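User: I'll paste a sequence; please echo it back and then give the predicted structure.

Assistant: Echoing your sequence first, then the prediction.
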Amino acid sequence: MAAKANRWLVDMAEDAVPSAFAVWNLGQRVGHHGLDLPMPALHAKTESWFGSGRLRGGQLGAARFWGDDELMLAELVLSERDFGGIGTTTHEGFRRILDYTQGSGFPYVARIWSYFSRINEGDGDRERYRQFCVGRQLAWERAQFEADPAATVIGLPDRSQQLRLVWMASRSPVTMLDNPRQMTPRQYPPEYGPDPPRFSRGALLRSPRGQALLISGTASVVGHSSRHPDKLGEQLAETKRNMESLLAIGNAATGKKSSFGVDTVLRAYVRDESYFFEVEDFLRDQFPGAPFVVLLGDVCRRELMCEIEGVHHY
């Protein structure tokens, strides 16, 4: 008999769940009220985040938000034309996230998704991803913010000037997690840019409904070094090992013996559309019963071909 899923926080299907407090439209599908992520996919999906108690929504300054009694998801879209480049736009965006969050009633930032185009454009420290990291670091430093939320940063396959930031915040404190197979990002050496990336490998969310592991965008990186260049299958296997290592930390923190599968919801991002079928086959085989979507988007390092993020429910 198949195991019954315990996806109390988020689920993924062809259509939105009516009781969801927030909805992501993934893969160039629009029409549902919520967050549109217009990135090409073989199979477009809708990701529903389930509400608890009174649902709410509206504006936080220039951001839209959706919330319930425990959590809030909010989206802020800024144009580089207004702030003079990706670094300064990022600084402004993350500064606003902190300002908006403190006044929202959901003071604990658990996770941030960042999307912008041409992520690998530019040489050396002028690369757009490295300038993004500079802007984020400056915002964190000026606010004396030390939490380093779980995160995903992906390049959109277009040439727009928009920076799209989506964040999750909680009424209750969130536990940030490191991965013993990977260096803590803020400790990366200078070869990766003038300022290190600031994020945690995962975050443990606790609520009256249950516990969930928020898995940051994870790729074929061991220590601080990329592994298996130009070998998609080996990069996927290394990524899975990193995810299993993080899950073991989450299991220890929760006192659970849990494994990936029906209680897991995944997004994968691939650098080239020719990778779609191999990545879908890998996810179907290695995460049995887990709903997933594979989207076309650039990973932060040129040599990395795929990145996987997700939510695992306890």
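Residues 10-313 form a domain with the 60s Ribosomal Protein L30; Chain: A; fold (CATH 3.30.1330.40). The chain has one domain: 10-313.
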